[in-house]
Specification:
Chain lengths: 451, 451
């Protein structure tokens, strides 16, 4: 292999995992990583916990500094370096040093595009007012935390009812804020089905959070340059802090301009080795289209687990190895106040096209036996193919200890188990952890009866 | 089917689950359950939490009373009724009413033996002194809790270093007792491998519990009828409370006397439908030999999960259905103070005979990302077949949230996954729940490198 010089565009999960894996496998390879932000390899998923004060300083989120990459792994990690163009014919990228404003060409033998995804920022009146924040970078997070500490806001409006919105709602409760969530969709968390989402809404309402769903933000009102209210078609909500959590879009302008055809949601299309159709160009992470493990459909979601796995696969293959990324189930988990939420595989809304005849069962159980004083409600929903009983997906909403059971469902899905096999699983039981019949098994039983 | 009258011997998990399942499937069947104790269908696994004061009254442990079985399910549950003999030729059992001392024959068309297991009680000098307790029944548990409340003991010695011993140690810490554990084996918890067990011992020692392992109790000293000390070959430990937790043995005298050949550890041998070789006689629960799901070996352990599953299978088949108990992995979980412990499948000590060439890997990880303030250590050990990479078993010892991951390993085992497939699992990640690479995946990776 002529892998003398690997250039990585993007210095977070996918990019730096690939760089590290490449270094592990090859001592001689030159590795250069270009990151336009100030930090590489930071824990974006930790941001809500830093904002909420659970994690003290943002430095804790920085897994490894550019200096460490340089000294410990001989990886030339260049922060504040933005790649402006990929020049596949020449085997070069055009780079701008954002501090010195110098532009230069950097040659590569292998190129990894790991440009990630960016938070959606709507082009609405008042969007640039002070007090409106995103949380998709450490820089934004430190600004927000600074604002919470020093400006002592009282009324927060979160725009967006997805994971990030809910996690930040929990963070804001720690600051004693009045919190409202405005969601464009009729329900929170579109990655779970409506009856499960309703349980989350109930819990949020119990926490004192006001929900305004099926509402669209039309503008932000400002006073003296600071945000004063959020305007929807239906109302004006006073706010001295606004959090934008309206989802992500893949950063693929560079890839498209380099001649790569884009897939769903404008993602880069690779094979399972993370190879793009352009020779010597690889891609991994949030900018890449994945395949769904249940039915092979093209699928995109922004998850650190997928990015890390794809980065590792890319780093292996770039250095002459043979690894493949099998696909994803979109397994994810989150916590909003006392409620745990998890999902994996396909959900009803994914199956709405009717191509697969399926059956679904939801059960309401508890996290521990009824005699244990800390037992909490826990709902499990499972979906299976009607003709074969093959599991298609699952969702969990419940109290402490509920949601990590999603891993049983994810493992069963990946192994291709049918619901009667899930019913027979020998799962762990002791009163601090579960009921004798695990709620996942109870759900499987109900589903068996319907298959 | 001539299932007019089902008699069940034993009124706990297996017996009453079978009775309930039989009733669910058949409205007309007469069902009689004989229980020699005072209670049916009680949560034996909840006893440590009742003793420790987490569960308030012992009534909370009684899932369903005989009256409820009678009124709600038309199940004639007779407590304080001991079956003295099974008469297969006559299709009858000989029963003694322990209150009236009346003996009578009860006819059956189908008989389920669900006699459970009894705590081992060594025949040692002083064993009958006051202050020496077992915890294998609600009656014993209420006596122990009463003793804790009113006698205010100060020094407890637990004889036995298995699950029950550890769970009771946790219970006793809640009463502020000085606690010692004496174990005959050189390590705590023989159901996990030595290097994992060592982690548990360290945690127990940190909790201030004194461990005396590889020591055998030879006698109990008493003063005025009350226990004063526990004597081993090596020392005399002062004690005003002794807990016996020396394991269980299946209750199979009745079965043997009825002509049934016994299997390992004197268990009743059934087929996967819970049928014994004697016509119309079934058996389920702690008195029955199970097959190990990994390699089919005969296996016995006392677990509520197995009893409930076998009871359900028996109840289905007794009423003309067709269910089977697939076998067990011996999946179990427990908590001792801040430490969670879980295991499933085969362990190194199971494979010591050398018939299967295996490889094992242990990793030390953490329950949450390093930046989360509550992250705790977590060790995972996995074993795989050397030639194929097929997973054979796993063990986990760690802090809060660690142990329920055992279900991923159990599911993978039951699905027959190889370690490289476990490495590829799409497991859930968010900072309150896990590291980006789940510790189970990290262990699988280490094992992959060895396979």
């Amino acid at each position: 292999m002529s892998t003398d010089r690997l250039v990585v565009i993007g210095g977070d999960a996918a990019g730096m995992t690939a760089a590290s894996q490449a270094r592990r496998r090859s001592k001689d390879l030159q590795i250069v990583a270009m990151e336009k932000g100030r930090y590489v390899s930071y824990a974006a998923c930790g941001i809500p916990y830093y904002v909420g004060g659970i994690v003290d300083g943002f430095e804790r989120l920085l897994v490894r500094s550019p200096e460490e990459f340089r000294s410990k792994q001989s990886i030339d990690a260049r922060v504040r370096h933005e790649v402006l163009q990929i020049r596949p014919q020449a085997g070069k990228v055009l780079v701008r040093d954002l501090d010195s404003h110098r532009e230069y060409e950097e040659p590569y033998d292998q190129l990894l595009i790991a440009t990630g995804a960016s938070a959606v920022r709507p082009d609405l009146p008042g969007i640039d007012a002070q007090g409106i924040f995103g949380v998709s970078s450490v820089e934004q997070a430190t600004e927000l935390r600074d604002f919470l500490e020093h400006q002592k806001p009282k009324r927060a409006v979160i725009v967006g009812g997805g994971y990030i919105g809910l996690e930040l709602a929990e963070s804001f409760t720690r600051w004693g804020l009045d919190i409202s969530i405005i969601g464009r969709a009729p329900r929170l968390l579109r990655s779970i089905d409506p009856e499960m989402s309703d349980l989350v809404s109930e819990a949020m309402t119990k926490m004192g959070i006001d929900l305004y769903l099926a509402e669209e933000v039309t503008a932000f009102e400002e006073q003296a340059g600071r945000v004063a209210a959020v305007v929807t078609e239906k109302r004006t909500l006073p706010a001295d802090l606004v959090l934008l959590a309206m989802g992500f879009k893949p950063n693929t302008d560079l890839a498209r301009e380099a001649g790569l055809a884009l897939g769903i949601k404008d993602t880069i299309v690779t094979d399972d080795h993370m190879r793009t159709p352009l020779e010597h160009i690889w891609a991994a992470g949030d900018c890449v289209q994945a395949n769904h493990l249940v039915d092979g459909r093209p699928y995109w979601t922004s998850l650190a687990t997928i990015s890390s796995k794809q980065g590792r696969v890319a780093g292996t293959n770039i250095t002459g190895g043979d690894a493949s990324f099998p696909g994803t189930l979109g397994t994810s988990i989150t916590k909003a106040g006392p409620v745990e939420i998890a999902r994996t595989g396909l959900q009803e809304t994914d199956l709405a096209d009717g191509d697969v005849a399926f059956t679904a069962a939801k059960i309401d159980s508890i996290t521990q036996p009824g005699y244990m004083p800390d037992n909490e409600p826990m709902a499990v929903k499972l979906l299976a193919e009607k003709s074969t009983g093959r599991l298609l997906g699952g969702q969990i909403v419940g109290g402490a200890g509920a949601a990590m059971r999603i891993n049983v469902i994810a493992t069963a899905l990946q192994a291709g188990l049918a619901v009667d096999q899930i019913h027979d699983l020998d799962l762990a039981y002791a009163p601090p952890f579960s009921t004798v019949w695990d709620p996942v098994v109870i759900a499987a039983r109900k589903l068996c009866d319907q298959c």
